[in-house]
Structure formats: C-alpha cells, structure tokens
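As described in the Methods, two query proteins were run sequentially through the folding procedure within a single session, without resetting any intermediate state between them. The first query and its resulting structure tokens are shown here.
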Amino acid sequence: MYIPTVREDMAKRGWDSLDVIIVSGDTYIDSSYNGAAVIGHWLIDNGFKVGIICQPDTSSGDDITRLGEPKLFWSVTAGCVDSMVANYSPTGKRRKDDDFTPGGVNDRRPDRACIAYTNLIKKYAKGKPIVLGGIEASRR
C-alpha cells in the first residue's frame, strides 16, 4: 500500500495523525528507486505512521500543512539530486527539464530546497524537530 500524501489516504488507513512527515523535492513514486518511499515504507514497517509531501509550493502554507503536524518529527530531503544541480547547468544556465517532476518541467523544486522546505516548516508548522537527509543535506 502506498504512503499517504493527503488526508483521505490517511483515513483509508484509519489514521487521524502521523508520527513522521517526509518532505521531498522529488515527486512521490512508490518504488525502491525513490529514497523517500524506501525510508517511508521502512518506518511504516517498524510501526510508525508516515506521510509524504512532495514538491510543496513554497509561496504558501497550503501544501506543507495538508497532512497536519507530525507527532515526532519532519523529515526533509531535496530529493535524489542536489537542487542546485537539478536547476542549473555547469555554466549557470537554468535547466528547463527535471526528470523527477511530473511532466518533466523544471518549475517545482526551489533552489537550495532543503533550506526552502525547512524555512517553510518553521513558518507554518512550528514546534517539532526537523531531520535533514539526502545528498543536498550532506553537502551544505
């Protein structure tokens, strides 16, 4: 069964709240090739209630608050590629395509996504710890 991305998915599992919410710069694909999905399923298999918010809009709180606030912590990753690598070529030109975004158009992943998503959480959902992970988090 896939990991909840909206409250309706939580209701199907009989969950009214989540322990962990994963925020990712990649789209959610329930596959062993998607790091957020692998970690999310591992947490669920070990008794945690987990949801995923993918590529949230950083201009409002609508996306980041749609699953509520987690009981334990937020997990943030820019995705499987550093956001600056995903957004810019080696010569500094803006990339038009993003293989990890629906439709392939590079318009959903902000620059320095880990920082952008963390600031979004701090603005709209204060109070719980934030755990950073992924290639971008290890480089900044």
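Immediately afterward, the second query was submitted; its sequence and tokens are:
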Amino acid sequence: MSWLLAVLIGHLLNAVSFVLDKVLLTKSIQNAYAFTFFIGLLGLAALGLAPFGATFLGIPGFNVIAFDFTIPTAGSLLLNLIVGALFTLALLCFFLAMRGQEATRLVPFVGGSVPVFTFVFEWLFLDQRLSITQLVAFGVLVIGTILITLDLDKKAEPDKPAQGAKGWVLALLAGLFFALSFGLTKIAFEQQNFYNAFIWMRLGSFLLPLLFLLSAKHRIAIYQAFSLFREKAGFLYLVAQGFGGAGFIFINYAISIASVSIVNALQGVQYAFLLLMAIIGSLKYPKLLKESMSRRSLALKVFAVMVIGFGLYLIAQSQVYA
C-alpha cells in the first residue's frame, strides 16, 4: 500500500473517531485528565489491531504467526516510551487548551503549527530536504488546514488575561509536543521494525497517564468517568477508540516510509472528511454535531477543500518518499 493512500485512510478513520470523541467530551467526560487517561488506557487496544493492519498494509518482513516482538536496546526502548508519552502529553495540553480558549482560534493555530514544527525538526535532525514542488505542496496544505478550521460565524470572545495566556501557551505546547512525537516516531521506525516500535510507543502512551492517579483530584475524576462504561456511551467510547487506533496505525505506517512533515501537513484532509460528515450528520442530528454554517463559512470551507485537493495533487505528482 502506498503511504499516501495509508494517510487518507488513516485520516478518514480519525475523523470518525474525532466526531465520536467530540460528543463524548461534550456530554460525558468533562475532565481533560480523565479523558486523556482513557485514551492512553484504551490506546493499548491498538496493539490488537496492529497485526491485521500490518498484514493489510503489506509491511515487509511481517509474519502473522511470529510477530517478531523483541525487547529493544535501552536507547531504543527509551526513545519509544518518550514518543508515546509526548503524544499523550500533547493530547492533554490540547484538551486543556480547549477548555480555556476559543476553539475558533485554537484549532487553526494547532493545526497549522504542528506541520511547521515538524518541518523544522525534520530539517534539523533528520537531514531531509524537500524539493521545490514538495515545499509548495507543504505550504498549500498548511494554508488549506488553517482555512478549513476557521469559523467565520462565531465571534471570538475576549479572553481573560490569565486564562487567555494560559490557553495559548497550552496550544503552543500541544503543537510542539505533537511535532516532537511525530519526528521522533520517524527516527524510531528507522531504527526498528514497524510492529516492534509501534508496540513500545503505545506502552509509553499508557504509562504517562498513570501519573494522573497520583493526584487525588484526578483520581476522583477518573473514577467517576468509569461510570461511563456502565452506560450506552461506554460502547460509543470503545468504538471511537477503535477507529482512532486503526487510524493511528495507518498514519504511523505512512510516517515510517514518507516525509514526516508532508504526512503532518496532510492533516487538513481529516478536516475535509469532518466537514463532509458534519454536513451529512447535521441533516439528521443538527443539535448533536452543532455544525450550523452560514453560506460564507461554508464557501470558505469548500474553498479550503479545493486548496487541500490541489496540495494532494502536488504530493501525488512528486511522490515524496523518505
């Protein structure tokens, strides 16, 4: 399977997971620490999908019976755990920022900053250079991502000085941690086989949220959130994490064989899928998704999809391989 097709499938699956997570975060789990804890916990479910994803993707040297699972060297193990921990930390910063900052401004900021930070990381530490066409495609995709996440219908409310500063700092940290996680993921895949590195990364994503249990406040929130699994929302949460875990496998596979900055720049594709789902879903559940848009806002998002489509065309033409 080509890396570009893997990215598209991954973002489609992530879009489904995002919609379900949005409903759950709004209606069921209000605490960002509790939500991040369960994402880290159920992220281990992705391990069960890894063999099937690896087989479907046709990863060289993968054997369904002998998974080639080994304990890596101390350096590689530490790298894998750091990658997983950074990704979970980025999620936590993002969720915390969403609680104290206007999503109208935060989502475009994070969506645009991640590929830029990743590009700098790739330039400095991976010694990879993009061609002129690839650089243009990168810029086009970042612009498309920012445009599609803008909300022209909602006026941003002025932030309280302390809350506003904290929200932007958290958003900046989220973008930086996401970029570091993806950049180090590329290095990990260059040192180890896909399946082995993927497993140990997920372990890192699981171990970090365990630290939340040291806080009595977070322990209570996490304990209360467990009641979710005794309700119908519990099944929805498991489904959401299943889609997210599968999407994560596809995205990681793409990172393992392609330019990590280009893969991250394709984040706008996920928003395009989200737009399509929102339009379809709002026809039947307008109050659930809350995606009512004016003609001006819809026109901007359609234009953004066209921009992203042009970026995809440039990428397909250039065939960016690491």
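The two ends are 15 Å apart (CA to CA). We note this only descriptively and draw no conclusion about the first query from it.
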